[in-house]
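Notes from the pairing session

We agreed to fold both candidates in a single pass and log them together. This is the raw record for the first candidate, unedited. Please don't reformat it; downstream parsing expects exactly this layout.

Candidate A
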Amino acid sequence: MAQRGLYQRHSLDYPLLKDFGLYLERELCNENFKQEVENVARYLYYFDPQQPSLQFVRNREKIRQYLCELSRAKLTKQTQINYLKSLKRFLMYHTINTNLRREDQTLHGDCKDFIDYIGSLQKSFSKQVSKEITQKRHGRLTEKEQLTPRDCLAVLRAAKNDFLAVIGKVFEDKDATLELTECSFVVYYLQAVVILRHLQRPGVVEHMTVQEWVVRKKDTLGNAVIGVKEHKTAAQQVAMFALSQEEEFWFDMFYTRVRPQLLNSKKRKRDDAEVKERFFISSTGRPIYNASNDLNRLHRKYKIESVTSQVARRVFETATETLTDADKSLVADYLTHSTATAEKH
């Protein structure tokens, strides 16, 4: 993407994009709104580097060229569908929630036609997505070197000494403050602990609240058990994971010493009740919205091949094949599998 200039985008402060972002954030309560707006801003820049506009709806060839560029940059069809989805939502906002119809009826009609065109592209891509999934599954079955649970934790081992050094600063000196990069590093590492060591989905990290941390319970071994209500399978069960005493200490240092620093960050734009509610917040003083990206950044920092939440969970599931059915059931519960997935494993 970077080599092909596809990360270049218009500023999100342009009214056309800013209003869309506010709509996603405030009316749709979309936590990943910035990612969606950036997706749109990149395409608008590709179409016209000078200024963002809705004129792109009058050139269908350009969107096809853009998708070809994304393919050459090795983006999957599913990722390309996500780009189309963002563009479609952008157009739906401007055709339904603005005065575009009254101000320019012709352009409004062209936007609606382009929405239909995007829908046809999404349908054609969905078949290719199925093929990609099949190929990926086949690749996993035939790959020679399978990852082990130990391999999945490589980044935690590589980063641990640096992490302990940062935590040590605020533990030893009550008046110490960290650099913003150090604060972010602590956030990345603790997210990785939950995702890779405790095998929780990114959504569990993103939605964990301060209250859920405060009311944690101790089990018979002294572990701190945390339950998170909001996550992928939240309708079926609460996600629960048990931090060791050492990990609980790290989390407490973050909560009492590092998190307050992030709340007072100069980058923080406004007081937000949601920020105070969420346990993990970013360097901007806002709730983290993409734990998977943060995990990937940590791997890149230590030049270790990235291990995603999905991969780590699958590797651990494979490693439990020799367990009894009762123990497998316990593993499924810990991983917060849906009923269907639990039965499959």
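Candidate B (folded immediately after A)
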Amino acid sequence: MKVEIWSEITCPWCGLGSHRLDRAVERFEHGDEVEVIHRSFPISDSFAVGSTVSVREATLRKYGLADASLETTTRQIEGMAEQEGLSPYRVLDNQVGNTRLAHEFLAHASAEGKNRVAWDGVFRAYFGQARPVFGLDDLLDLADEFGLEREKTRRVLTEGRYRQQVQDELEQAQQLGATGAPFIVVDGRYGIPGAQNTDALLGVLRQAWDETHPTVLAAGSDAALCGPDGCAVPADHATHA
């Protein structure tokens, strides 16, 4: 079963949502048969390339949140993340910038077979360590850590080889109904907006699995075929008074 999750790197709900999805797959009885694929949902184009600003300044500029409201909102997210095993999880005391190049880096890493490694690593670097993930040198350092060839990564990013793919992934999510991130699609049939809790995600995984994997009980001639709506008794089953 395939699960796709679209995220923005600097979105705190995306980092938390990715973590919750991982926990749901870990708890899922058929988790070893689930393929999780991360995809790009860049929404940071309002930031100038090559510069960063503080989360405080960016949020005030974009949403008009004053310090008191911003402090309350971001600390709540940090608190939830800590309760769920993500600590530290730096939201308020961080920097934001244009993430398009970082998404191209993630597309390159995915093409090299490191989709999960790269996405988890970028979230960990940004939220766990408050490291910049916006510039070429920042990303080349991450390439070294992820086992990617540094000079090849430099060429790929300089030439913009994955620029169109990043845009295509964004448009694909929007066509599926996404208006923000994170956005999860389970088995190509269930769209889940926002950072739903682990229990809710686990429930969707189970429902999607059950609908495509009916249970067969083999117990001789009296066996019943069981599906998501119940069990059918074989036609030749004798009726007992």
